[in-house]
Design a protein that fits this description.
The chain contains twelve helices and eleven strands. The strands form four sheets. A four-stranded mixed beta sheet has the order 2-1-4-3. A three-stranded parallel beta sheet has the order 7-8-11, with helices on one face. Strands 5-6 form a two-stranded parallel sheet. Helix 4 packs across helix 5 and helix 9 packs antiparallel against helix 10.
Length: 315
């Protein structure tokens, strides 16, 4: 609406690694100012300031000037880090602020070097955690313009990112299955031991979003998966993985204390998204499965079969 229309005044507009699309809608660019700007989703307008910034950015990445602000070891290991240092006044945090008199929730920031910086709305330009884990677009009732596969786990490389898109039904680059390929899918239901643990926490007036319930669920999922893989191999079928339920987010790094935030990644807890459908890399290693040559399809594959008029047969 009116808030986003202000982005027309931005010379450069960039996405964010911040965790709360809802908070971003309420506070606007001021919320992004204190976080990490992510150049994976970036717009540069051909204004004089935008063109000059793009030129300086390229030159600084290619030949960083001496000193700690841009050159290693003080900085920087990526073009994104150089970007962050360049736009922040003085190169430090926050170094960005809304223009004087800007309304709450505005999308513009005063940046270094006479640059008007726009903050792309997280709800419309989503990072990987907001879309694949929180599913914030469903809660907020919006259709994002773009999704950036950040916050993937496993090896953090192309295969892991493609798997996230594949599970969400956003990947269309896979070839069709071979003619005559047969599949085995098993319906997911809550394991009895998980139901019992949840009931116990409810009896004590406590949330089931905790690592005890989550670990109990993971153990049950892996046991079911072992049997399903054996059956699929015996029948000569490709296994379709179910949509499991996670009761705790998975940490990006050991320093990320999710346990004090309801088992949600710090900064994301206002979305209250636990429990949530687990991405594959929250339970298994897509890279390890690919290396081992374990044939499988994700749950979203059933949706593509339905699009082609193929109906599953329940046994």
């Amino acid at each position: 609406g009116a808030r986003c229309s202000a982005l027309r005044e931005a010379d450069v507009a960039v996405s964010s690694d911040n965790m709360s699309p809802g908070e971003d809608l309420r506070i606007g660019a001021a919320y992004a100012a204190g976080g990490t700007l992510n150049t994976g989703l970036l717009f540069v307008r051909p204004t004089a300031a935008g063109t000059a910034f793009a030129t300086r950015w390229h030159e600084t990445v290619s030949s960083p000037p001496p000193g700690k602000r841009f050159a290693p070891p003080g900085c920087c290991t990526s073009d994104q880090q150089v970007f962050g240092r360049m736009v922040r006044v003085g190169g430090g945090y926050p170094g960005l602020a809304p223009p004087a008199g800007a309304p709450t929730g505005g999308r513009l920031l005063r940046a270094d070097g006479n640059l008007t910086l726009g903050s792309l709305p997280l709800a419309l330009f989503m990072n990987g955690h907001s879309y694949f884990v929180q599913r914030a677009h469903e809660r907020l009732g919006v259709a994002p313009f773009a999704v950036h596969a950040t916050y993937t786990l496993d090896t953090h490389e192309g295969g892991a990112k493609a798997q996230r898109f594949r599970e969400a039904g956003l990947w269309r680059a896979d070839p069709p299955p071979p003619q005559g390929e047969r599949f085995l899918a098993y319906n997911f239901s809550e394991p009895p031991e998980v139901a019992a643990r949840r009931a116990e926490y409810a009896r004590r007036g406590l949330s089931a979003a905790n690592v005890d319930v989550h670990l109990s669920a993971l153990e049950a999922y892996v046991a079911e998966l072992r049997d399903a893989l054996a059956l699929a191999r015996a029948l000569g079928r490709t296994l379709l993985l179910p949509r499991w339920t996670c009761w705790c987010d998975r940490m990006w790094a050991g320093s990320d204390d999710i346990f004090r935030f309801g088992c949600m990644y710090p900064g994301a807890q206002d979305g209250n998204f636990v429990p949530f459908p687990c991405p594959m890399d929250h339970i298994l290693s897509p890279a390890a499965w690919a290396k081992a040559g374990v044939g499988h399809r994700d749950a979203a594959f059933l949706d593509t079969l339905a699009e082609r008029g193929v109906r599953p047969v329940e046994v």
